[in-house]
Amino acid sequence: MNHISIMKGGVTAPKGFQAAAAAAGIKYRGRDDMALVYSQKPCQAAGVFTTNVVKAAPVKWDKKVVDTSPFAQAVVVNSGIANACTGQEGYDCCVKTAKAAGELLHIPEDSVLVASTGVIGAQIPLDRIQEGVKLLAAGLGADEAHGTAAAQAIMTTDTRRKETAVTVEIGGKTVTVGGMCKGSGMIHPNMATMLCFVTTDAAISHEMLQKALSDDVEDTFNMISVDGDTSTNDSVLLLANGMAENAVIEGEGPDYDSFCGALHQVMLKLSQMIAGDGEGCTCLFEVTAVGCASKEQARTLAKSVVTSSLTKAAIFGHDANWGRILCAMGYSGADFDPEKVDIFFESQAGKLKIVENGTSTGYSEETATKILSQEKVTCTMDVKMGDASATAWGCDLTFDYVKINADYRS
Amino acid sequence: MNHISIMKGGVTAPKGFQAAAAAAGIKYRGRDDMALVYSQKPCQAAGVFTTNVVKAAPVKWDKKVVDTSPFAQAVVVNSGIANACTGQEGYDCCVKTAKAAGELLHIPEDSVLVASTGVIGAQIPLDRIQEGVKLLAAGLGADEAHGTAAAQAIMTTDTRRKETAVTVEIGGKTVTVGGMCKGSGMIHPNMATMLCFVTTDAAISHEMLQKALSDDVEDTFNMISVDGDTSTNDSVLLLANGMAENAVIEGEGPDYDSFCGALHQVMLKLSQMIAGDGEGCTCLFEVTAVGCASKEQARTLAKSVVTSSLTKAAIFGHDANWGRILCAMGYSGADFDPEKVDIFFESQAGKLKIVENGTSTGYSEETATKILSQEKVTCTMDVKMGDASATAWGCDLTFDYVKINADYRS
Questions:
Q1: Cβ(B109)–Cβ(B7) under 8 Å?
Q2: Kind of pairing, strands B195-200 and B235-240?
Q3: What's the distance, Cα to Cα, between the start and end of chain B in Å?
Q4: Which one of A81, A385, A402 makes the best mutation probe of the B interface by having the most chain B beta carbons within 10 Å?
Q5: Parts of chain A with a pLDDT under 70
Q6: Is A228 in contact with B228 (Cβ distance < 8 A)?
Q7: Beta-sheet strand order (sheet of A350-356)
Q8: Is the pTM of this model over 0.90?
Q9: Which of A233, A296, B16, B205 sits at 20 to 30 Å (Cα–Cα) from B291?
Q10: Which one from A193, A200, A220, A307 is the annotated catalytic residue?
Q11: How far is A293 from A279, CA to CA, in rounded Å?
């Protein structure tokens, strides 16, 4: 795999991609709440979507586009209303949004993807969306600032915008992958999470693009959790327009590996950004299970700990309550010997072994509290059964999480 | 099934049972923190225990007593330290506790059950336990006040003691079933929950006693959740001493049904008391799935909604955020058609249909808020697929839950 370089910017970093933001007054006032991502050239499109039985209308529309359209060329996003549980009227709104954008951008309506995030159950005011689409089409730009404005517009309870980009050389050509995402609550992805848009100028077949994305979410977006609630709108969309002019990637090999490496960097960064900006959270909580008999076991253990309300509350309190961690491992469904487990806490303040062979090491609580008082805290559990490992990302459970969600709709 | 009458009291309500409480200074100061339940006559004993891979030492000891001892006659409980993740030393503590109690009560040590609740990972000070056992043996009494003192002593973060009792006539004899339990956090039972002790003077075989208990927990303790965390110490113990002098229940039939009916009343009441006293909670949240294709489907849907952090936070905010309910049903793993679902909210302030066929009924938010502002709130979801139903109990997610758990150990 070739060297991957991190660069500034997000969705507009790859060649040929433009973005725009606009204030359409969908729900929020006095801020941008719609975004458009557009590619000069038609793109191969891949997507992964929520596994929730209740799927928002845009998820249904986008699945159809990704699976049956010859290409995609634009994504229209609104924040404020999720367009979930909205019946035929909600689906019609997606079709009309795509049609309006298609006409303005001179592309087929079935090449326009749509995405929504916000309150479930409310209908989107179609007139405002159509007005918003006009503003977006007129405001497109290919520079970094336009990408950043789009990343800002798709936020709901997020406190920080989330974008990143990398480059990698493939067959003598510089390929760029950029992305943006939003997500802060209702985060417990299963196949995808909330809204994430990744662009690339790589030339790659539809089949390999979808494979790269589907494989990568297993180690990135499917390994984060804020509150255990899997959203109805989760979507990760990936557009590749081929403008890097590398030889088209049509199968596995070094080129595909380099592309996957670059994609992984972007997806990893974006998913961590979501976990670290979980509703009300004060720290990014990284949990790694090592010494596991299988990847599956490692994922199960890491996700169970990162999802435990009691563990998350202890992290908020900077309390090295390892009993809750061992407890959460124990009810995960994975089998292991509790009396062989070692547990470590680590942050920029240091590293400490808290548990050895299932019982306390007699560590200093003072040192532990210092380690746990940082913006990023890592917990590593070693079950000493094999070589497999997996990492999950989440956050602490705080007063503000409750505050935000006790009265989100008003 | 014969008529069941509710009566006052708890574990000492059935004939021949005594209880005691004592302050042993295990962790708490200035309050009772140990309890003893004792039967004048040897009892058949049944138990259900946590499915957590990490099992506390008392769970291991009690499983052995229930499975292999000819009878049981006493239960020694301490609150403050869970005796979980304590290795051989922790198990030895159980054996020595049983031995000390056995000597003082003149019964075999393998007829003494033990139970602990509190912090995971700390060793119990054996000398204090032994001193406590002496106080308990000397303080036994058969009246209601002694049962109540025991129910008080086993509390940790509970704000209310939890006890109840009922009588039922079996074969012309009055059979009494009484119980007490504790539990407030780390509540998401799987096979059992926290600590619950049920006594009865019914005459019943070991086999039928265990069957009655194992079947009943599926609809009671396994259907409550406070925070999704399944404890390492969950235990429900049931002792039957036969002193009601009914003909011994040795198989299914009307007598067994009457006994199960009485047992169910006690278990149901106790499990609801735990859910309604969840850490920091302001209301008991009851969730019923009806119109389901199978009992299994109904349980899955009800538990998913009652466990959803976002739904629980909305209940705290008296917010009829039905989108989160439909969302939690959707990710439960159960299959259903979202566009056929009806959702109702009910409390003593009234009943309201919020959702019909998957979308809002256009209900009054004001009326909904009034209904949601009561001490007990019921949500009913109808998926219109069949006749099966199930109910789960939980509570709202509040600032105080976070507060209690951010700093539980100190």
A1: no
A2: parallel
A3: 49
A4: A402
A5: 186-194, 228, 407-410
A6: yes
A7: A359-360, A350-356, A342-347, A376-382, A284-292, A388-395
A8: no
A9: A233
A10: A193
A11: 34
Residues with Cβ within 8 Å of A123's Cβ and at least 6 positions away in sequence, in order, are A81, A83, A86, A89, A90, A93
Among the options B97, B157, B167, B193, which is catalytic? B193
Contacts of A392 (CB under 8 A, 6+ apart): A223, A224, A225, A286, A287, A288, A299, A302, A303, A305, A306
Highest mean pLDDT among A240-244, B95-99, B272-276, B313-317 belongs to B95-99
Q: What is the DSSP letter of A226?
A: S
Return the residue in A331, A396, A408 with the most chain B beta carbons within 10 A, the one to mutate for interface testing: A331
φ, ψ for residue B155, nearest 5 deg: -70, 145
Q: What angle do CA B403, B408, B410 make, to 5 degrees?
A: 115
CB A278 within 8 A of CB A395: yes
Residues of B in contact with A51 (CB under 8 A): 331
Q: Which amino acid is at B56?
A: A
- Kindly state the tokens that stand for B399: 């600032």
String of DSSP letters for A47-104 = EEE---SS--HHHHHHHHHHHH-S-EEEEEEEEEE---S-HHHHHHHHHHHHHHHHHH
d(CA B142, CA A390) in angstroms, rounded, equals 55
Reply yes or no on whether the pLDDT at B53 is more than 90: no
Given a contact cutoff of 8 angstroms between Cβ atoms, the answer to whether B347 and B377 are in contact is yes
Q: Chain A closest CA to B235's CA: distance in Å?
A: 15
Note the pLDDT tens digit of each residue in B94-128.
Answer: 999 999 999 999 999 999 999 998 888 888 999 99
Cross-chain residue pair A405–B313, CB shorter than 8 Å: yes
A314–B52 CB contact, under 8 Å:
no
Residue A124: list chain B partners with CB under 8 A.
none
- By DSSP bridging, strand A350-356 and strand A342-347 are antiparallel
The verdict on a CB contact (< 8 Å) between B327 and A186 is yes
- Within 8 A of A54 by CB-CB distance, chain B residues are 326-327, 329-330, 338
**Distance of alpha carbon B83 from its chain centroid, rounded?**
19
Catalytic, A193? Answer yes
Query: Residue A116 corresponds to which tokens in the numbers above?
Result: 């929504």
Residue B322 backbone phi and psi in degrees, to 5: -65, -20
Q: Which residues of A touch B120 (CB under 8 A)?
A: 321-324, 326-327
Q: Do A409 and B319 touch (CB under 8 A)?
A: yes
Which 8-state DSSP code applies to residue B111? Answer: G
For tokens 């100061």, name the residue: B29
From A84, A119, A405, residue closest to B310, measured CB to CB:
A405
Would you list the DSSP string of A102-134? HHHHTS-GGGEEEEEEEESSPPP-HHHHHHHHH
The yes-or-no verdict on residue B265 having pLDDT over 70 is yes
ipTM metric: 0.77
Considering only CB atoms, which chain A residues are within 8 Å of B87? 339, 358-359
Q: Grade residue B372 by pLDDT with cuts at 50, 70 and 90.
A: very high
Residue type, A1: M
- Whether B87 sits inside 8 A of A358 (CB atoms) is yes
Test A120 with B326 for CB contact under 8 angstroms.
yes
Listed in sequence order, the DSSP H helices in A154-276 are 206-217, 254-276
CB B191 within 8 A of CB B49: yes
| Residue A192 to chain B, least CA–CA distance (Å) | 13
